[in-house]
Every structure is written in structure tokens, then in C-alpha cells.
Amino acid sequence: MTQHPLIRVRDLNVHIDGQHILKNINISIPDKSVTSIIGPSGCGKTTLLKTFNRLLDDTANVTVSGSVLVDDEDIYAPHAEVTHIRKKMGLLSQRPYPLPMSIYDNVAYGPRIHGIRDKSTLDSIVEKQLKDTGLWDEVKERLHGPANKLSIGQQQRLCLARGLAVQPEIILGDESTSALDPVSTHTIEDLFVRLKEQYTIVLVTHILRQARRISDYIIFVYMGEIVEFGPTEEVLLHPKEELTRQYVKGFIS
Ligand SMILES: Nc1ncnc2c1ncn2[C@@H]1O[C@H](COP(=O)(O)OP(=O)(O)OP(=O)(O)O)[C@@H](O)[C@H]1O
């Protein structure tokens, strides 16, 4: 059963430096599920992900037309507030970027910015998020030690905990396991599967096995257009479109 769409993209077009990068994108991304964006290198996966939290605002020579509705609010409307939009989303990039401070302060950073000062409230937020990301037992004895001393896999989970601490609705991941070893990759994948009960998760991945393992839905993008969107089994095992079939079989990369 298709779940209620949380992100609805309507007639979205993106031009960068005069090039038509995303073409007439129309899609509804279901709530409380994992949706993976797949497609060949340079097809526009990351650009599409960036339109969901207005990260393209920081790119030069970009024009975006159309609408992206999150919770029925058009995030590209003239009065839309970027800070309010981004508060709804946690972003996990390819490599972890912990802030140059302690493990505790990384997780408490967002809540503090949003005005939480009470120590016991912050303590319980930090503990909850570190437990939710499976880090608590590994770091509880060194919460006030520097975050950059953690392994890369732990740092990535810490970045996820930092994002979750401001209670987003959506988690965006851009090839967020590409810098990780296989064990850390599995840990993050398991986390996504567990977290989808509470969050809507949209991931860019070029690893089809990963997309198959953890996604409920797949978006296949080719040269800036959505070729196919549907439940994972349908798109990967019984694609409707010849282009998808060729990509899944590895004939296009
Ligand atoms: N800031 C930018 N300036 C100029 N061109 C850009 C910029 N960002 C993206 N592009 C172009 O937009 C197209 C899509 O890029 P994008 O990063 O979205 O693709 P992708 O599918 O995520 O690729 P990959 O899998 O290789 O990361 C590419 O042709 C890229 O060169």
C-alpha cells in the first residue's frame, strides 16, 4: 500500500550554468519509508536530493522552477523560510563532518541553537540519540572526549545522531556509506531500516544491492529525468521501462 506522501515535487526544473540538469520532475515520496534515488553518474541524483532542503541555494548560477511541497508547504514559495525548512531535515553526506568539539557537544549543538539550555534535558536528548544510533555503549565513557577521535563509521553515526537531535521529519542521505567499511555500512543501513518507523528517508546510492536491501521505493533517474518510480521489487526485478532494465543489468553505468 502506498503511504501518505510527505514530499511532493511538481514540475520541477533545475538549470545550472545554463544546462538543464533536472527536467520536469513530478514525484510523491511516501512518508515513513526508505526511498532510494539511483541512476548513472552525473544523471542528477544529488541535485534532486538537494532540491528537498534548498541546498541548491548555495550554488552559483542556479534556477529552480516548479514546486517542492513538504507537509503541504511549498519550500520554494517566496515567503518560505530556509531555516524552518532545514529544521525538518537531517542531512548525512558522503563523509562524516563532526564539529570540532566533544561527542556530547556535537549532539547537543542543534538543541542548544534551538534554545534548550537545561542540562538534564540536554543529557537525555544526547543519551537518546546516541542510543538510537547504536553509539551509546561505545561512547558513554568518553562523552566529553573529542568527536574526531572516533572511527569514521562512528563519526557517521554521530553525525546522524546530531541531525536527529533537532527532531527532523526527513533524513536525506547522499551516498552516506561510501566512505565506510563494510561493517559500518551495514550498521548505517540497519539504522535506516529501523529509523524509517519514525522518519521519511531519502537516499542517493549507486550501490544497487544497498538500494535493494534497504529501500521500500526506488526512483531511477537518467539524464535529469525520472524514468521509473515504484516499489523496490517492481523497479529492480520487474522494471517497466527498457532503460531501467538496462541499468539494473549493468549495461548503463
Ligand atoms: N555546482 C555545479 N556547477 C555546475 N554543474 C553542476 C553543479 N552541480 C551539479 N552539476 C552538474 O549537474 C549534473 C548532475 O550532477 P549530480 O551531482 O546531481 O549527479 P549525480 O547523479 O549525483 O552524479 P554522481 O553519481 O556522479 O555523484 C552533472 O552534469 C553535474 O556536472
Automatic annotation (TrEMBL):
One of its GO terms (molecular function) is ATP binding. Keywords: ATP-binding, Nucleotide-binding, Phosphate transport, Transport. Residues 7-248 form the ABC transporter domain. SUPFAM superfamilies: P-loop containing nucleoside triphosphate hydrolases. This is Phosphate import ATP-binding protein PstB. InterPro entries: AAA+_ATPase (IPR003593), ABC_transporter-like_ATP-bd (IPR003439), P-loop_NTPase (IPR027417), PstB-like (IPR005670). It comes from Parapedobacter defluvii. The keyword Transport applies. The lineage of its organism: Bacteria, Pseudomonadati, Bacteroidota, Sphingobacteriia, Sphingobacteriales. Pfam families: ABC_tran. The keyword ATP-binding applies.
